[in-house]
Specification:
Layout (H helix, E strand, L loop, with lengths): L6 E13 L2 H8 L1 H18 L6 E5 L3 E6 L2 H17 L6 E13 L3 E3 L1 H12 L5 E4 L10 E9 L8 E8 L14 H13 L14
Parallel strand pairs: 4-6
Antiparallel strand pairs: 1-3, 1-4, 2-3, 4-5, 6-8, 7-8
């Protein structure tokens, strides 16, 4: 007699992050260059995700699926990963899709539902360096992340258009530097400092462990 499949309903936030143009890059630059880009991506994700309490659910070749119990830490992680990757002088750009909501946790290790499907579709619609997120009641943002309306998008597999925002780190109107108030300051300051250095910000502090 077969055992009953374990099914649990949970609320989660999902992000899919991938390298833009990876297939063409491999064809044009070869395997060694491709592995170098993947190594930067994986090192960046492994560095940032634990600091934000976000879990790597699975590696997807030229990308990664991230899972968080809450939206705010996951958004913080994805924005930091994109900036950190760019600051590492990678040759390719990252893009990401984010969505949150109730899903089915199947057999304890597989997520099934609208939110995970939507995040996977949004990454395909994102431009290089762009982070697209479903704009709904489940989306909570850190104070230092700005959401710019991206309109309603027709998303494959969804009957109705989806309201979407593009997420970016907020910058000071006076200095152009990244704004990291609250608890994220000590965690992410060191990670984002290489990018802050590209802005004309005077008197930056030395890196300190988060």
């Amino acid at each position: 007699m077969r055992g009953r499949t374990r099914v649990t309903s949970v609320s989660r936030c999902f992000a899919f992050v991938d390298l833009c143009g990876f297939t063409d890059f491999v064809d044009g630059h070869g395997d060694d260059a491709a592995v170098a880009e993947l190594s930067i991506l994986r090192a960046t994700v492994r560095e940032v995700a634990p600091l934000c309490g976000v879990r790597v659910d699975k590696w997807l070749g030229d990308g990664v699926m991230l899972v968080g119990v809450e939206a705010e830490p996951l958004v913080a992680a994805v924005v930091a990963i994109e900036h950190r990757f760019r600051a590492a002088h990678a040759r390719l750009a990252l893009r990401a899709g984010i969505a949150a909501g109730d899903v089915i946790l199947l057999e304890g290790d597989d997520y099934v539902g609208r939110a995970v499907n939507l995040a996977a579709r949004l990454v395909d619609l994102a431009e290089p360096h762009q982070i697209l997120a479903a704009d709904d009641s489940h989306l909570d943002l850190p104070e230092w992340v700005h959401a710019a309306p991206a309109g309603s998008m027709e998303v494959k597999g969804f009957a109705d258009a989806v309201a979407v925002v593009s997420l970016v780190a907020a910058r000071s109107a006076r200095t152009g530097g990244l704004m990291l108030p609250g608890p994220w300051s000590s965690v992410l300051e060191g990670l984002l400092k290489p990018l802050r250095g590209t802005s004309r910000v005077a008197g930056e502090r030395n890196d300190e462990p988060g």
